[in-house]
Amino acid sequence: MRRAVITSLEGLRITAEETDGRITGLFPEKPEEASLVGCIYVGRVSHIVKSIRAAFVDIGRDTMCYYPLDEWEKYAAWQKNGAALHEGDEILLQIEKDAVKTKAPTGSGRLSFTGQYLVLMTGKKGLFFSSRIRSEERKSALKKLLEGKMKRISENEAADFSYGIIVRTNGEAAPEDAVLSELTELLSEAKQIFSVWRTRTAGTLLYEPEPAFLSEIFNNRTETLEEAVTDDRAVYDILLRKKEAILVGNQSCHLPNIRFYEDSYPLYKLYSLETALSHALSRKVWLKSGGSLIIEPTEALVSIDVNTGKFDGKKNLEDTFFKTNLEAAAEIAVQLKLRNLSGIIIVDFIDMKEEDHREQLLSYFEAALKKDPVKITVLGFTRLNLVELTRKKVRKPLHEVMSE
């Protein structure tokens, strides 16, 4: 059973994911310091650094945003001096990454609008599907439905930019009328922003995504989420309103039961969130076999070392190493999501002599990582027999949030 728990702990609002009795996701946030990711601003170009092909854009809030020029789109710029981008120009941008330590937030002129079933994008034409949608028959039906809609948009509107659509995992089982209805809503949001942004002053916030806890509950694999429980009345009311709004357009979709917790025993204690948080911040993770993982996040990368520990094995040493590595691979997949680690990740599995074992391990590891809703790319074994992978950054890692 998969459940979401939303409560307060150590001054933070915690959204926890529990899967079959184990905490598999922890998403802390300071309500007064919400993430900027997804927000769309009118910004003013402060200065351009040609050597790194980037601009720094003032978005107000005493915040300067890093803006790669490769992400610049002409339709999202109000230029004063010709075709190129200059200091003082006003641009429309969306925050893609929050500030991290000394690094400024990152913005882009390619905007995206996220719904329960679809993501609408500007500056990228085409139709794309979540890798978790496997049914070719369903893909074909959705392609016919959405491409027909996109063609009509192209023919009827004189836009100087194109739209792209990503069908999310939740879209696979959604009724066609619900998918089209959501597309209409997302298009309306985009059109509204493009119609008014040039009349707004620099620093204006034009679009703000839903709170993170709503996204975690309603936009990520709702078909497997059975319940969302909270002891916060305001959060409970928001969850109920969101659920009711979705059901208006799609009565048949699976949504979690929303429950308000009223018992005197603290909700965070009921689900042992303090213990889960402590374990998720520890550099050492014990495996059931007696082996362990040592997880070391640094500024450049995340290193994970697999050790046999007290699991010596009674028979074949190679088999012992293989079994420990398989157990470690499954646990690493859980820990990456739990700790929200991203960027370059290097895993030092226990060395094995048999090539067949290495191939089986890599295949098993890739399958375990596919359960993560965040995009992960496995690059394979390096010449030093280390496994290299990358995980897309969507928010700050757990250890950084908790140390602020």
From TrEMBL:
Classification via Gene3D superfamilies: Nucleic acid-binding proteins
InterPro entries, A to Z: NA-bd_OB-fold, RNA-bd_AU-1/RNase_E/G, RNase_E/G
UniProt keyword Secreted present: no
GO biological process: rRNA processing
UniProt KW keywords: Hydrolase, Magnesium, Metal-binding, RNA-binding
The organism's place on the tree of life at top rank: Bacteria
Domain RNA-binding protein AU-1/Ribonuclease E/G: 112-394
CDD domains linked: S1_RNase_E
UniProt xrefs under Pfam families: RNase_E_G
GO cellular component: cytoplasm
GO molecular function: hydrolase activity; metal ion binding; RNA binding; RNA nuclease activity
Cofactor: Mg(2+)
Name listed for the protein in its UniProt record: Ribonuclease E/G
The organism of origin for this protein: Fusibacillus kribbianus
